[in-house]
Amino acid sequence: TPQYETKDTDILAAFRVTPQPGVPPEEAGAAVAAESSTGTWTTVWTDGLTSLDRYKGRCYHIEPVAGEENQYICYVAYPLDLFEEGSVTNMFTSIVGNVFGFKALRALRLEDLRIPTSYTKTFQGPPHGIQVERDKLNKYGRPLLGCTIKPKLGLSAKNYGRAVYECLRGGLDFTKDDENVNSQPFMRWRDRFLFCAEALYKAQT
């Protein structure tokens, strides 16, 4: 939609697009905009039950990437009503969750994102700031030091707690779980919690 004028309330995304051979950049840009908003692979009867034109993403500008063959920056505008207030997860799932395996594209990368102020104000943010963290830890006048327990997977809950104890006794202020750690069979969440609570208590005494 090259004639589309962006609104202050639109979320704007810049995608680096490499179309498949024979696919024009305009078609690739339109496909990205559609697939990441209201589009689907075929026409369905329920399309007539809503105003797709109101909600669809629009590829409003395309420019070639300097020095790169068959690469383009496609700028896409999304109406704010497509996104749940206060949900980073919903925003990114909508914009990038379904487009990277699109057949019209050989490669795709999200390069930039402009989020309107009205949308950022819907995010709750942290419940308190660094001063409260320092008050809870009773640590002032220096950086807070922490680490991620390694190896990230494979430790028993007891050995995980032992590692936490050694870190805290060694002078660290906190430890954290790796993103891969959840409640696996070798280290259930409740067991890990109990051993870590014991480690924390011992390290403080």
UniProtKB/TrEMBL annotation:
Biological process GO annotation list? photorespiration; reductive pentose-phosphate cycle
Matching Pfam families? RuBisCO_large, RuBisCO_large_N
* Molecular functions per Gene Ontology: magnesium ion binding; monooxygenase activity; ribulose-bisphosphate carboxylase activity
One annotated Gene Ontology cellular component of this protein: chloroplast
Subcellular location(s) of the protein = Plastid, Chloroplast
Keywords from the named record: Calvin cycle, Carbon dioxide fixation, Chloroplast, Lyase, Magnesium, Metal-binding, Monooxygenase, Oxidoreductase, Photorespiration, Photosynthesis, Plastid
Q: Where is the Ribulose bisphosphate carboxylase large subunit ferrodoxin-like N-terminal domain?
A: 2-119
Q: How is the cofactor bound?
A: Binds 1 Mg(2+) ion per subunit.
Name the reaction it catalyses. D-ribulose 1,5-bisphosphate + O2 = 2-phosphoglycolate + (2R)-3-phosphoglycerate + 2 H(+); 2 (2R)-3-phosphoglycerate + 2 H(+) = D-ribulose 1,5-bisphosphate + CO2 + H2O
Per the entry, which co-factors are needed?
Mg(2+)
Q: Does the keyword rRNA processing apply?
A: no
Q: Where is the Ribulose bisphosphate carboxylase large subunit C-terminal domain?
A: 129-204
Tell me the domain of life: Eukaryota
Catalytic activity, EC:
4.1.1.39
Give the similarity note.
Belongs to the RuBisCO large chain family. Type I subfamily.
Q: How does it assemble?
A: Heterohexadecamer of 8 large chains and 8 small chains.
Q: What is this protein called?
A: Ribulose bisphosphate carboxylase large chain
Biological source species: Tamarix tetrandra
